[in-house]
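User: My collaborator sent over this chain with a note saying "see what the structure looks like." That's all I know about it. Can you take a look?
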Amino acid sequence: MQYSGCFISLLKLTLSILNPPTYTCNNTYNLYSNWLLLTNCEHLTPDAQVVRRERVSQAHCDGSEEIANKEGFGTTIKDLPMSLKLLLKNPVYMMLNMAGVSEGIATSGFATFLPKFIQNQFGQSPGYAAILAGKQSERILALA
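Assistant: Without extra context I'll predict from the sequence alone. Here is the result:
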């Protein structure tokens, strides 16, 4: 009986993907609420429990966890180079930084050149093109 909520959510989510609704606020909320319900039901499956037991952390396989957990590490300025080295060797942190940089570059290019593109492509005035680009930039930055 505890699986019924997950399966109903899976069915609703599948139907909403196969037959996409018009995206009003209510439909988008239903889509996200189904997704949240599905992601919270993974603990009910027996495979997830096996994977959790056998999972090994791969984030700090280079011994940096022992260095960072030493008593008194990070309390003096002498620890700054070592902590910076550990931070720069962390692949997850570096990939997130690269993703942020890429997003920033794309957004700045979009905000810089979109008004001129709208102006040339659609024959709009510079002021109206800037207003349209500004409205679109708000939507994109809200998703970031």
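A starting point for your reply to your collaborator: DSSP finds seven helices and no strands in the chain.
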